[in-house]
Structure formats: structure tokens, C-alpha cells
Design brief:
This protein has about 450 residues and is of the alpha/beta class. Helices cover about 35% and strands about 15% of the residues. Helix 9 links the parallel strand 15 and strand 16. The chain binds iron/sulfur cluster.
Length: about 450
């Protein structure tokens, strides 16, 4: 039994699909790093841990640290009986999760949860935590809480969970302060405040954030609501972090979670990447969050290539009939030419195409896929999920076949909540088309 001040827990995901496509609870791990430096003793239980030796079946791993999670089918929520897909709990089987938690005796628990429609996994976890630890304080943060605190509060009131506290802090300092007011550290200050990736069983990759927020306000995106604009972090610290993980823990793959990684490139990311090139670090960078094609010229593309960018995902969304201002089709084409010239190949380049928006035009989605294929860019379907507080959420309310403002379970992207009468065959055909195009492009490169 490990006695710790704080136990950090990554909840299960209850969903139709989930992949470890550089998926980590970055905010929770970063908060853990800040608290460890203050002398808190920590434990970390990752209920999604794909490396747990007692999993009934080891999930397959893929290149660059990505892979699958272990999953078990569970009953589909009754409103989704029309959705021709199975529903799963991703992560450790329930008894194994309980066994992991029982290894610890914490003074408090910290949890974070991202998507609003993943709350079922959180609710099951809160009940399990009470069973295992009794009524010790449990702090719950993350995007779900920041967008829909009242939804969590209603559950806590119904269950009489007076020991569970939704956390809605404006920054990490405020979150640290909140913990300090309630729990005192019992250990020695740790020398670093980096996110606690080293408390995982393995470190297949590390997440980086060099900034928060975005200068744009696309009508479907939560970035402005969450961050209120763009703010750059000091680059020197990010460089130290990369060197630390690479040299001390042999990490090669790094994924950026920035919303606007290339914004103000000259003053922000460029000095960092030039330092990486000068140091000769053999690392690979990946951008699961799309980067802005608008900011890519020959010089930018060259620096990205030389510094180790390997997976480059661009945000396109639509070829025509655009509803945002983040890129024009000419800017997109120009960016692809520059990236090609710098040496990026088909297997490096991908672009997101949003699918399932209110009043969706299936033909427009297909046209965009063909456009990308012709340009040798792998098309990735980004299924639309309505985010509370955005203009597209209001539109979605008008057309959805579900009461999306009553229960966040209806925000699930896989159910195409903004499509009144989904044509499931056509939807599947479009997803298959994108997959087939990726296969052909990557086998050709
Ligand atoms: S450019 Fe990207 S991150 Fe910025 S608001 Fe649009 S979708 Fe969100």
C-alpha cells in the first residue's frame, strides 16, 4: 500500500470509439508536475493504460507511440439504439481498475475529464472511488467541468457526494493554490515541474504545449470559450523539457497540443525548432491538433522538416462552402506545395475534413476528400461534436434529433447529433472512402 498525498486518476472512456492517437490528460499531468515540485507525494492510476501487464489482451501498438486501448463492450445508452455501432468501456476491466486503486492510500484524489460526453466513465469512477477510499476529497477538472459544471453538480447532489469538488480554475497556479488550501505536502520538493509522464508504466510519447488558445473563432470550436484568445508560453522552458525527456527517458516522439502552433512562428516556434536543429536532437514531432496552413511558407516548411516534424495534420474542413476564416483554399494549396518542396511525403501529410455539421451536405464532404487525394494529402474525417456555448451548438439544437442541451451524452460525435436523419450507409461509405484514400496514399509513398 502506497501512502500518498494525492492520487491522480485518468478515468475510463465510455464511447463508440477511442484511440491512443497521442491521447493524454495533459492538464492533469501538468498539474501533477507542479504539485510534485511543491513537495506533494503522488500516485497515478491510468485507467486507460494500454501497457498494464494484467490486461486480458494486449492492445496493438502503432508507429510513433500511438495505438489502441483495451476495450470491453457495454450496453449502449438507450437513446442510441438507432446508431449501428457498438458501445465500449475503454481501459482496464473494472476489477483490475479497483485492484489498482486499492494499492494506494491517498489524502485526496484529482481527476480530469475531457469530452463532455465521456461523463459516464467519470460517474462510475466516482462511485468506485467512494467505495475504495470513503469520503476523501475528490477534485474534478477538465474541459467537461469547465463547459458544463452544472451537469456534474446535479449528479453530485443526486448522489449526495459532498466530498467531490468541481474545479474550474482559470490557470494552473489557481488550481495549485486550491489544493494547497486543503492538503499540505508531506514530501520533499521534486527538482522538476514537468508533467508527470514518468509516473506512467511506459512513456511512448510526450505531449507538449507551447501556447494556449487561438487567434481565430471558428463557429464550432471551444478554444475561445476555454482560453479567450492566444497566449504563448516561454520557449526556453519547452526546450528544456524536450531535452529532459529525450536525454533522461529516451523519448523520441513528441506531440503538440497547441491550438495555434504556428501563430507568430518567427518569434515563437522558430527559435525553439532552430535550437533543436542546432543541438542535433533526433526527435519526431507530431501535430494531432491541426496546424494552420495559412502560416506555412517555404521557410516554415523547411524548419519543420529539419527539426523532425513527422506527422503534419492541417485543418481544412471544407474545400468550398466554408464557414470559418482560418484558411482559404489558395493558402491551403500553397502550404502543401511548400511542405512537399521541403521533403514531406504523402505519409507525413494529412488534413481534417469536418463531417456531420448542421445541415450537412454529403456531396461537399466527398468533394473535399477527392480534392485532398488529388493533392496527395491523407484525408481524416473529423466527426462534428457540438460544443456548448458555440454558434454551431445553437444551430445543432435546431436540427438535432436529440435534446442536446439536456444531456451531454448527445454531444457524442459518433451519433452525428447534428444530422436530423443520418443516412448511415452513406456515412459509412464516406468514412470508408477516406480510409481507402489514406491506404492508397501511404502505400504509394
Ligand atoms: S483555427 Fe482551429 S483552434 Fe482556432 S478557433 Fe478555428 S478550429 Fe479552433
Amino acid at each position: 500500500m502506497f501512502e500518498v498525498d494525492l492520487l491522480l486518476v485518468q478515468p475510463w472512456i465510455y464511447d463508440f470509439s477511442a484511440h491512443d492517437f497521442w491521447l493524454k490528460p495533459y492538464g492533469l499531468l501538468k498539474l501533477g508536475g507542479l504539485l510534485r515540485k511543491k513537495g506533494y507525494t503522488l500516485g497515478f492510476v491510468d485507467l486507460l493504460d494500454p501497457f498494464h501487464p494484467e490486461l486480458p489482451k494486449r492492445p496493438k501498438r502503432k508507429p510513433f507511440g500511438t495505438g489502441f486501448f483495451y476495450k470491453e463492450p457495454i450496453p449502449k445508452p438507450s437513446p442510441f439504439l438507432d446508431v449501428p455501432r457498438r458501445y465500449f468501456r475503454y481501459g482496464l476491466p473494472y476489477p483490475l481498475a479497483k485492484k489498482e486503486l486499492l494499492k494506494y492510500k491517498p489524502k485526496a484524489v484529482l481527476i480530469s475529464i475531457t469530452m463532455t460526453y465521456w461523463y459516464p466513465g467519470l460517474f462510475v469512477l466516482l462511485k468506485l472511488l467512494q467505495e475504495v477510499f470513503g469520503e476523501i476529497p475528490v477534485f474534478v477538472g477538465g474541459i467537461y467541468v469547465r463547459l458544463l459544471k452544472e451537469h456534474l453538480q446535479a449528479f453530485l447532489e443526486k448522489e449526495g457526494f459532498l466530498h467531490v469538488f468541481p474545479v474550474e480554475c482559470k490557470d494552473y497556479e489557481e488550481a495549485v493554490q486550491l489544493i494547497e488550501e486543503r492538503i499540505k505536502p508531506s514530501g520533499h520538493p521534486y527538482p522538476f515541474d514537468y508533467p508527470i509522464f514518468d509516473l506512467q508504466r511506459e512513456i511512448p510519447y510526450v505531449i507538449l504545449m507551447t501556447s494556449e488558445g487561438c487567434p481565430y473563432r471558428c463557429p464550432y470550436c471551444a478554444s475561445y470559450k476555454l482560453y479567450g484568445g492566444f497566449k504563448a508560453y516561454p520557449i526556453e522552458k519547452i526546450l528544456e523539457e524536450i531535452i529532459f525527456w529525450h536525454r533522461e527517458h529516451k523519448v523520441v516522439d513528441f506531440a503538440f497540443y497547441d491550438d495555434a502552433l504556428l501563430y507568430d512562428f518567427e518569434n515563437h516556434l522558430k527559435p525553439l525548432l532552430e535550437a533543436i536543429i542546432d543541438l542535433g536532437l533526433k526527435v519526431r514531432f507530431h501535430t494531432p491538433n491541426a496546424i494552420h496552413a495559412r502560416f506555412i511558407d517555404e521557410e516554415v516548411a523547411k524548419v519543420l522538416k529539419l527539426s523532425g516534424f513527422t506527422t503534419v495534420r492541417l485543418g481544412l474542413e471544407r474545400m468550398e462552402k466554408r464557414f470559418d476564416a482560418k484558411v482559404s483554399i489558395d493558402e491551403f494549396i500553397s502550404a502543401i506545395h511548400c511542405l512537399r518542396k521541403a521533403g514531406f511525403r504523402e505519409d507525413n501529410l494529412g488534413a481534417y475534413v469536418i463531417f456531420g455539421i448542421p445541415y450537412e451536405d454529403y456531396n461537399e464532404v466527398e468533394k473535399t476528400l477527392h480534392f485532398l487525394f488529388e493533392f496527395g494529402v491523407q484525408p481524416y474525417i473529423a466527426e462534428f461534436s457540438p460544443v456548448p456555448g458555440t454558434p454551431f451548438f445553437k444551430l445543432c439544437q435546431e436540427v438535432s434529433r436529440y435534446p442536446i442541451d439536456e444531456d451531454p451524452i448527445f454531444h457524442n460525435k459518433s451519433i452525428f447529433p447534428a444530422v436530423k436523419k443520418p443516412d448511415w450507409e452513406r456515412i459509412q461509405a464516406i468514412k470508408n472512402l477516406a480510409r481507402e484514400m489514406r491506404r492508397r496514399l501511404t502505400s504509394a509513398s
